[in-house]
Structures are given as structure tokens and as C-alpha cells.
Amino acid sequence: DGGITQSPKYLFRKEGQNVTLSCEQNLNHDAMYWYRQDPGQGLRLIYYSQIVNDFQKGDIAEGYSVSREKKESFPLTVTSAQKNPTAFYLCASSMRTGLGYEQYFGPGTRLTVT
Amino acid sequence: GQQLNQSPQSMFIQEGEDVSMNCTSSSIFNTWLWYKQDPGEGPVLLIALYKAGELTSNGRLTAQFGITRKDSFLNISASIPSDVGIYFCAGQGGDAGNMLTFGGGTRLMVKP
Q1: Which of A45, A50, A101 sits opposite B92 (nearest CB)?
Q2: Would you call B104 an interface residue with chain A, using a CB distance cutoff of 8 Å?
């Protein structure tokens, strides 16, 4: 069945290590997004990609990097330069419907850095 | 980035009660979306609104796109325990471009 998958569900890393979060979608959506959510907070946009081989910085891109080599995949790397990487990371994808854009989310990856 | 003002921030209600929450913005939007997030999960799209004044229902949920295009509300009728979660509004298009702008969320707690 169609959807967005993120793996792993929980990820633990030591401070100073880079870590890559996976996001895959089989919805044939053109656009994909990465958000960060901190406890009790809303969603903040990290990066987005509207087409393969192209991506744009969101509101909080510092310390993160992405790639979009395939339509289905949009991995996010949390680098050691990110000052406070512990958070819940959400991937989303969207396509234009006849009326507008609807964005759908994956189940999320909780990253803990110690 | 800009923010949507979502209220209330939290609600603690009795099972069977109706619930109302809203979002307001200083910018206009072309689309309003309402999501529900369960603990530790990704948000799930509940209702999408595309036209000013539009009123749309999804089961016990009803949402409206404000006539000024700067606000939206979500009502839940006859709440049940599984309605517990965080509800987010999001606006897209208009002054904000194609990205979604999210409200801060309304945390709903239902007492059986």
C-alpha cells in the first residue's frame, strides 16, 4: 500500500557524529519536506525539494543537509554542526490536486544525541 | 517564518462535549489544512479547505475556511477518548507561497 516510510523509528547517536535519517515515499509525489518538532512545539521546516536534484533551505537549515537523487527518496543528514539535534523529525510529501496542495506525513524518527 | 495563532493551546473536556478550536493569521491563505497528531506519530490530514467560506465535514469533524481567508476553525462534536491528541492547523498559498505555515497546535484531552 502507498505511503511514506521513515526509518528507524528511534535513533541514538553520540555527540559529534553525523547521522542520516531515511525517508521514502511511493505516492509518486513530486515535492518532499523535512520538519523538526521539539516537545510541545509546532513544526519547523528544515529543507524541501520540489523536484529531483533540486532542494531549498527552510527556516532552520543550519547544521542539516539533504539530497534528492530519486523522486522516491529524500534523506536528511544531521551533522555535528547542529547545536541541538535531539528532536522528532518528520518527513512529508505533497502533490498538487485539482484544488491545491495536500501534504502527507511519515511516522517520524525520534533522534536522541548524547 | 511567519506563524499562525492557534487557540486554545490546550483543552481538557468531558467525553461527549463538543470542541472548538481556531487559527488566525495576518496573512491570507489559499488553502487551510487541519491535522491530528497522536503521541510519537506523524500528523494525519483530517480536512482540507480550498475556498473562502467553505464548510467541510469529516464524520464528527467540521472545519470552515474563513471568509477573509485569514482564519479557520475546527469543531469536533460529541468527543470520545480517541479524539485525544494534538490538532494543528496549516495555511498554504496566498501571501505565504507554496509552503505550509503551521499553528502551534491545540492539545486535546478527553476525560471518560
Answers
A1: A101
A2: yes
